[in-house]
Amino acid sequence: MAAVPPGAPFPPSATLADIGEFPLIDALTALFDTAEHVLVGPGDDAAVLRIRNGHLVVSTDLMVEGRHFRRDWVPAEDVGARAAAQNLSDINAMGGTATSVTLGIAAPADLPVAWVLDFARGFAAECAKVGAVVVGGDVTRSETLVLAVTVMGGCTVSPVLRSGAQPGDVVALCGRQGWAAGGLAVLGRGFRSPRVLVEAYRRADPPYAAGQVAADAGATAMIDVSDGLVADAGHIATASGVVIDIRSDAFEIPEPLHAIGSALGADPMQFILGGGDDHPLLASFGSAADVPKGWTVIGSVRAADDDGARVLVDGAPYAGPAGWTHF
Amino acid sequence: MAAVPPGAPFPPSATLADIGEFPLIDALTALFDTAEHVLVGPGDDAAVLRIRNGHLVVSTDLMVEGRHFRRDWVPAEDVGARAAAQNLSDINAMGGTATSVTLGIAAPADLPVAWVLDFARGFAAECAKVGAVVVGGDVTRSETLVLAVTVMGGCTVSPVLRSGAQPGDVVALCGRQGWAAGGLAVLGRGFRSPRVLVEAYRRADPPYAAGQVAADAGATAMIDVSDGLVADAGHIATASGVVIDIRSDAFEIPEPLHAIGSALGADPMQFILGGGDDHPLLASFGSAADVPKGWTVIGSVRAADDDGARVLVDGAPYAGPAGWTHF
């Protein structure tokens, strides 16, 4: 990732309106790496990519200022890293590997250019963690800052869907869960510590290598936890037509969540069960013996009964906040 | 494209906030066709597509309410058709064929569900013109309505870039040009006629089959005209390092553009030279004999001189409005 050279043509206070569309595109493009599979990168009507195998895995996500992030809570580079992470994580959750990303930026004219370039640096750096590069994009003006990301990748084995969980499977989790929700609760009360939670909210740390490992290990269903653990387990339960029972004693509650639970008068399990934004992977496996290293068994799958497909916690419906809704 | 069944669960006045995210996604997904190459469509973490050849062509675009369209000027189905057309046209301009599209909708909570479904119908119908289908998407809340489209496709021959125009080439155009700009000018004055221009603005009619034909015929450079004819010719000139000279007498000015030129006191050529949104193709060919049927030769390419790569009209710099700027 190249830095904008010292003496770049934009004064620190420059806004998007000051510099205009094409200089902005040039500055962004200069930040982005290329890769061997990119035959034509940004700058033409479309990018042209060489695809190594016959399957293309594609996901798209929008992030809206004020709804998915706040510029006063999260530095631009971290917003960029998060915008990339949540999309890369979707490819991970299929058992695939992301290679190529497009980035759309709809932004107010008075947005500082420096914010956009810092955002792009964080975005590109997160993509580089998995070897993906930005191959195209669009910038335009909007009263509301909206970031639109589409990520493409391949998979070497069959993709792991949400619909394959079977009664008798175990359910396992890989990656930290509840930390981002804890950080969000801290920021929401106007605090800045515990710092480790705030950092977890500002920057996700998805287990990018784990998806392909789980696919190779025979995961029967998989999802990344972005809406909330119970909510996303519910997506597997519904798609598979099963009941997923989560055992709350399977979780070791990390100390910072205990601390903010006490400080805010909240059960720390609610961050784990209801929180999103950490992007761990949740998957089902035929038996505990199939579960790869680094994963924790947190529950089991059983057949849907008269009450239908759903998620239980310790055998009972979960009464806490289930997760995020978009409208 | 399936219609939402009569007795669909949404009352005519329902807003996005009334129905929520997942029912909206279900209703949208029900509208979209599938296709043989879509192994996994909307509803999982990512779509999985079978790709027929080793090259993937990708383009992405944003459309923002108030900037790229107005809901009071253009019916929802036409906004959808336009959102699809401008992206499909980018694949066309590479000489490729679009197969798969993702659709992101960031929308105010009080937007009527009916608007979104009509938009999606128009979007899907336009995609169907080239055999492309919607394979994934995202919906979320935003104060500003922003539509984010990414389109993917393949090409059977080498993609045609902007950078291949050579001195001595002829420059040719395929598809109507200036009509949409005329329609926009009409609407901007509060009029509704000539209706044929207003319709052209509301719904583009790109020559989708022409891109691949031009590629097969050996087009040396190609672009779709979305920003304006002089502006987009300028993108070819800059990328190729050449001068493009457009002959204004090559254009037969259509009668409705004469009519509104008279009514508004404007030179009708300004709609042709400066207008965008019609999405004709502009390409260079090694000789007039290479130009396929249905294309009109409108100029020529010569070597850049001391004044650099640029566009001329009748041998002189063009003084009119050159096209669209995004900030």
Automatic annotation (TrEMBL), chains A, B:
Mg(2+) 2 binds at residues 61, 90. Pathway: Cofactor biosynthesis; thiamine diphosphate biosynthesis; thiamine diphosphate from thiamine phosphate: step 1/1. Substrate binds at residues 68, 277, 324. Its EC number is 2.7.4.16. One of its GO terms (biological process) is thiamine diphosphate biosynthetic process. It catalyses: thiamine phosphate + ATP = thiamine diphosphate + ADP. It comes from the Bacteria. Keywords: ATP-binding, Kinase, Magnesium, Metal-binding, Nucleotide-binding, Thiamine biosynthesis, Transferase. Residues 43-153 form the PurM-like N-terminal domain. Mg(2+) 3 binds at residues 45, 90, 224. Mg(2+) 5 binds at residue 227. ATP binds at residues 137-138, 162, 226. GO terms for molecular function: ATP binding; magnesium ion binding; thiamine-phosphate kinase activity. InterPro entries: PurM-like_C_sf (IPR036676), PurM-like_N (IPR016188), PurM-like_N_sf (IPR036921), ThiL-like (IPR006283). Mg(2+) 1 binds at residues 60-61, 138. Reaction mechanism of ThiL seems to utilize a direct, inline transfer of the gamma-phosphate of ATP to TMP rather than a phosphorylated enzyme intermediate. Catalyzes the ATP-dependent phosphorylation of thiamine-monophosphate (TMP) to form thiamine-pyrophosphate (TPP), the active form of vitamin B1. This is Thiamine-monophosphate kinase. It comes from Nocardioides jejuensis. The gene is thiL.
